[in-house]
Amino acid sequence: MAKTVYQYFEDLQQTSVWRSIFRSGTGSSTLKRALVIQQNVFLHLFSTKVRTRMLSFSATWYLGALTLGTFFILVATGIPLMLYYHPSVPQAYADTKDLQFVVSSGMFLRNLHRWSAHAMVFLVFAHMFKVFYRGAYRPPREFNWVIGVILLLITLLLSYTGYLLPWDQLAYWAITVGSNIASAVPLIGDKIHFLLLGGHAVNANALLRFYVLHCMILPLAAMFFVAIHFWRIRKDGGLYSRSSEPAVLRASAADPSSRKAGERWGTPVETQAPVAPSTVTVKEARP
Q: Residue 175 contacts by C-beta under 8 Å, 6 or more apart in sequence?
């Protein structure tokens, strides 16, 4: 009898090569499923257990996952764009036009990169508003809120530095206006202006500096803080759910009348079983 693909895969999992790479295999027990997550260099950043309610669309609107997806699209489209681009003043504009009219599917690649960048900025803001509305910035998640703010700033810097790379009139004057706004900061405005442009005007130094920031420094910083962000979600007890917070559970246990409020949030609230009042027999006193 011929083996199926699943049986071949099971045989592969039993080989010494597979076991040397993956220390724990899949299984039906909770322990084996948890070990698969804990002993994987990528999956160990995520929680081994997730509340069922937090997988619903209404809990997060999947804004964090969508933001991460747009970041992956930007990386996947940005690497091919780098192969056709030279960060030099006489060549940058010509390379942009070649991508648009000469390179096969170059216009599609560039537009996909551009629209993904716009979508990422929108999704990051929406994600921050959703987190703030749900109150997920409260302890013990205040540090992860700060990490999220840093990722928001990195996203804006990625969009700003990429704006100059086409080296057309729109890019030149937009960066000129933005750098002049930065120079208006009291005390350190001139230093910020010089640090951004590598000089006092938008020229070849600014183009090269923005290229390095956009293609190397900022993406690596984003990956670093994204890893910390997911790790802190796991360490802080998973995604935020009001009804499963320790303080809410203690308050619900002390006040059984709040059971309906807890169930409305999707998580049953633990309440103490009613205790029958003790009866005391009082003998009638004789005269």
A: 160, 163, 164, 197, 202, 206, 210
What is the number of structural domains in the chain?
A: 1
Full residue range of the structural domain in which residue 101 is found: 65-233
Name the pTM for this structure: 0.77
Instruction: Look up the CATH number of the domain holding residue 205.
Output: 1.20.810.10
Cα–Cα distance list, 219 to 18, 151, 158 (Å):
32, 11, 8
Six-digit token string for 13: 């999992």
- Residue 272 belongs to some domain of the structure: no
Rounded to whole angstroms, how far apart are CA atoms 55 and 44? Answer: 19
- Tens digit of each residue's pLDDT (9 = 90 or more) over 94-139: 999 999 999 999 999 999 999 999 999 999 999 999 999 888 888 8
CA distances from 74 to 33, 82, 127, 150, 217 (A): 32, 12, 18, 19, 15
Please check whether residue 279 lies inside any domain of the structure.
no
